[in-house]
UniProtKB/TrEMBL annotation:
Record flagged with keyword Transmembrane: yes
Transmembrane segments: 235-255, 276-297, 351-373
Lineage, broadest ranks: Eukaryota, Fungi, Fungi incertae sedis, Mucoromycota, Glomeromycotina
Organism name: Gigaspora margarita
Keyword Transmembrane belongs to the record: yes
Pfam families: Kelch_KLHDC2_KLHL20_DRC7 (PF24681)
Official protein name in the record: Galactose oxidase
Alphabetic keyword roster: Kelch repeat, Membrane, Repeat, Transmembrane, Transmembrane helix
Length: 387
């Protein structure tokens, strides 16, 4: 059941140990501080899901448009960073899953300005957060073990989309940024294009641009992005501005080629959904909450499941099965053509015919020679007379 859930957007969500934890958000312009999780260790249908409310009695700070990541040896800590009107000591908050305790750690830097509509990426207990400030495209990194912040200059090719983008860790060495907008949610502003994407190299602390190919989708922000590592594929979901023809797009992270995946049936959210949760759980993409308006109105608490168990042959479903497995990707095998087979057969027949003909010829000549010798008493050859 989800009777306590509001129609909301901008929630921070993260998957840890078969539980999706949700914190904060906004509902019809009201900022929220609720904290709950969805248990995905057992089967369920989307009309009746195993939600558990764990909001502390003493309450939590209201937090919206923030980001959440897990870290620690067992990924047993959730760190929440930034958000609308979240500065100072509350800029970072940590929930320890093991002992079910909250803390507001003292870090090396006290941020006094908002960083919102951001995404964090974790690599070896270093947490990277890009942008979040209008037209300010810097990168900040938190050493989660020592709680030290480091700021990096943006460089000449950092993405212009500093809010509402998606960030995906690839090969534990690079972060791929897709979409976003410069801040302010002004529809006439330029958005980050999808034909050239920005990559941040963690090891070299540098930016680069990769050119994409294929069915390149129009620019968007406030979208969802789900990485399916077994397929080397990122699915880009919905977002703003509305794209009627390409609400869901696939990017191959090996050759950076865009394609339109096949979805076998109708379903899913209404076109134009933005600022929603999208998380890969097993062989499903779970989509929850969101809005159709940036100001916090016209929010929703609808839920959807996209079955991605077969690559590029997806379908909307109403039930979740945690035991379902990804299907093996079929390999392409080149078979000899019918023409080749026919030619090979003809060649073999010709060779066999020639061989039999040669043998028959030898037999006839040998038989003739024997008959001549028997009749004339000498072999059939000429010997010149001796002088």
């Amino acid at each position: 059941m989800h009777l306590f859930l509001h129609r909301e957007q901008n929630k921070a969500a993260v998957l840890v140990n078969n539980k999706i934890y949700f914190y904060g958000g906004i509902s019809e312009k009201t900022r929220l501080s609720d904290f709950f999780y969805l248990d995905v260790s057992t089967s369920f249908i989307i009309t009746s899901m195993p939600w558990v409310n764990i909001t502390p009695i003493m309450g939590l700070p209201m937090r919206t448009s923030s980001t959440a990541c897990t870290y620690g040896e067992d990924k047993n800590r959730i760190i929440y960073i930034g958000g609308s009107k979240i500065v100072g000591d509350n800029f970072t908050a940590i929930f320890d899953i093991t002992n079910q305790q909250w803390s507001t750690p003292k870090t090396s830097k006290n941020f006094t300005t908002n960083r919102l509509l951001i995404q964090c990426v974790v690599s070896n207990n270093d947490i990277y957060v890009y942008g979040g400030l209008k037209n300010i495209n810097d990168m900040i990194k938190l050493d989660a073990l020592n709680l030290n912040w480091t700021e990096f200059s943006p460089g000449p090719v950092a993405p212009i989309g500093v809010q509402g983008y998606s960030a995906t860790l690839i090969n534990n060495s690079s972060i791929l940024y897709i979409g976003g907008q410069p801040g302010g949610d002004v529809q006439t502003l330029p958005y980050s294009s999808f034909d050239k994407l920005s990559i941040y190299n963690i090891n070299n602390v540098s930016w680069s641009i990769v050119t994409t190919s294929g069915d390149i989708p129009p620019s968007r922000y406030d979208h969802g992005a789900v990485f399916i590592p077994q397929y080397n594929q990122i699915l880009i979901l919905y977002g703003f501005p509305i794209s009627l023809s390409m609400p869901i797009m696939a990017l191959d992270t090996v050759n950076f080629e865009w394609s339109i995946p096949t979805i076998k049936n109708a379903g899913g959210p209404t076109i134009g959904l933005r600022r929603f949760t999208s998380i890969l759980i097993g062989t499903y993409i779970f989509i929850a909450f969101g809005s159709f308006n940036a100001s916090g109105i016209n929010s929703t608490n609808n839920f959807f499941l996209l079955d991605v168990s077969q690559k590029n042959n997806y379908q909307w479903v109403a039930s979740y099965d945690p035991t379902k497995q990804l299907q093996p990707i079929p390999t392409t095998t080149t078979m000899p053509s019918a023409t080749s087979n026919s030619s090979q057969s003809n060649n073999v027949s010709s060779i066999i015919g020639i061989a039999f003909g040669a043998i028959a010829g030898i037999i006839i000549l040998s038989t003739s020679a024997i008959l001549i010798i028997k009749k004339y008493g000498y072999p059939l050859y000429y010997s010149a007379p001796k002088e």
